[in-house]
């Protein structure tokens, strides 16, 4: 399975939770590589004007954004999300999942990540404080940009 710089593969973004610096990297990449970037959110978005950047605003509701992305993403596409259940859905369809911190979700690692996520969810539900995500650092942006570059240059591989 590989990404493509031919314009065939698309990038889908869970835009409600996408950090601004990551969105900026994606905007520049879409324009530079002429790859279609689909931002899906339940809030208004204001990306730069480009024939390669598309927005879709959906109604608020549980998993509405996730459902649109999971339905639209196909084999070889890249889905940018920190939502591990969404990543599992798209990986199952043959797409790649990429966390805004640069962690690639693949068929080889998604079940372990989903199990860990579920365990932490259960701990939080039982009242255990598990803490929130750490702030996005420059090393996270660099890791994301490196994985995005691999995708855009058709060099994605199962890890």
Task: Tell me what you see in this structure.
The protein is an alpha/beta fold and 159 residues long. It has five helices and six strands, in the order βαββαβαββαα. It has helices at 20-33, 64-72, 84-92, 110-125, 138-152; strands spanning 11-14, 37-41, 53-57, 78-80, 96-98, 104-105. Strands 3-2-1-4-5-6 form a six-stranded mixed beta sheet, with helices on both faces. Helix 1 (20-33) links the parallel strand 1 (11-14) and strand 2 (37-41). Helix 1 runs parallel beside helix 5 and helix 3 runs antiparallel to helix 4. The radius of gyration is 15 Å and the shape is globular. The model is unreliable at 1-7 (pLDDT under 50).
How do you describe this structure in short?
By secondary structure, this protein is of the alpha/beta class. It is 40% helix and 14% strand. The protein has a six-stranded mixed β-sheet, sandwiched between helices.
Search tags:
single chain, 159 residues, alpha/beta, 6-stranded mixed β-sheet, globular, disordered N terminus
- Main sheet: strands, sense, barrel: 6 strands, mixed
Average of per-residue pLDDT values: 88
The spatial strand order of the largest sheet comes to 3-2-1-4-5-6
**Strand element count:** 6
Strand content: 5-15%
User: Approximately how much helix is present in the residues?
Assistant: 25-40%
SS-based class: alpha/beta
- The total of helices stands at 5
Shape: globular
How far from one another are the termini?
12 Å
Low-confidence stretches: 1-7
Rounded to an integer in angstroms, the radius of gyration calculated over CA atoms is 15 Å
